[in-house]
Amino acid sequence: MARKIKKKTEPKPSNEGKIILIVTGILLGVIAVFLIILAIVQNVGKQNDSSSNPIETSTTVSTVSDTSLTDTSTVSTTSTEDADKPSTDYMKDVVIDNTKDYYADISIKDYGKIIVKLDYEAAPITTRNFVYLAQSGFYNGLTFHRIMEGFMMQGGDPLGNGTGGSEHNIYGEFSANGYSNPLSHTRGAISMARNSYDMNSASSQFFIVQSDNHTASLDGSYAAFGYVKEGIEIVDAVCRDAQPTDNNGSIAADQQPVIESVTIRTVDK
């Protein structure tokens, strides 16, 4: 009689094996979702950098590395370590008279004059730097190269493209950098532009705030040093007429409003 051959049965996975497979699948799914969310957040962050931080300065051809709007406004050839420790020696001849109020008359071609009252008590280094540059004629003939209606107008770059500055950087006089500065970036405030990674990278580029919409994001992170006392309607006109070429507020070179002069004057208190 022929023998019956029993078929071998395939071993079935144990309950423990099933649990391991299920847990592994769940973990892989969670990791995949996390990576997708991370990629989306990073992409949104890059977009926000170009639109919500219009007061950063851009990269210059110098020894200082760049940022996302990219860089510091210095043209210094000092090392990065030295660049983190700005010197104030260059403006030693700028002596502030505490018995007087200081005003900056910013004349813009085809628009008129914006009169800014400077606050040297709130930001003494920033104010002295601005006075030094203005009195040396540095700003005469420069432009406003970035303008965003409903936000601000930024100028003071000798290259006119966001990559330039003076020969010096200054300490950032704001709370995030350890300085007490009570001035808020409300409508009419004048403040210094800087790059996003170095708090002591402000140089010559400044901006004038048009509205209160972004006050919270600016206060404590940028050095305001005064307010427009007359001519805020000129700020409105410049911002209204601007035709940016991108969502970063960049203005074509032949369309940039020209700073005819910045004149410093004093009035007895």
Brief characterization of the structure:
Helices cover 25% and strands 19% of the residues. The protein is α+β, with helices and mostly antiparallel strands. The chain has a single domain (57-268), classed as Cyclophilin.
Describe the structure.
This protein is of the alpha+beta class and 269 residues long. The radius of gyration is 28 Å and the shape is elongated. The chain has a single domain, classed as Cyclophilin (Beta Barrel). A hairpin with a 3-residue loop joins strand 3 and strand 4. The relative contact order is 0.19. An eight-stranded antiparallel sheet has the order 3-4-6-5-7-2-1-8.
What amount of the residues lies in strands?
Answer: 15-25%
The number of distinct β-strands equals: 8
Residue-averaged pLDDT, rounded?
A: 82
CATH architecture: Beta Barrel
| Tally of separate helices | 5
The residue ranges in which pLDDT falls below 50 over 5 or more consecutive positions are 43-52, 59-83
SSE pattern, N- to C-terminal: HHEEHEEEEHEHE
Shape: elongated
**N- to C-terminal distance:** 126 Å
The level 1 CATH classification is: Mainly Beta
Could you name the CATH homologous superfamily? Answer: Cyclophilin-like
Give the radius of gyration: 28 Å
Give a short account of the largest sheet: 8 strands, antiparallel
Q: Taking strands numbered 1, 2, ... along the chain, how are they ordered across the largest sheet?
A: 3-4-6-5-7-2-1-8
Helix/strand class: alpha+beta
* Tally of discrete structural domains: 1
Give the CATH topology.
Answer: Cyclophilin
Q: Name the helicity range.
A: 10-25%
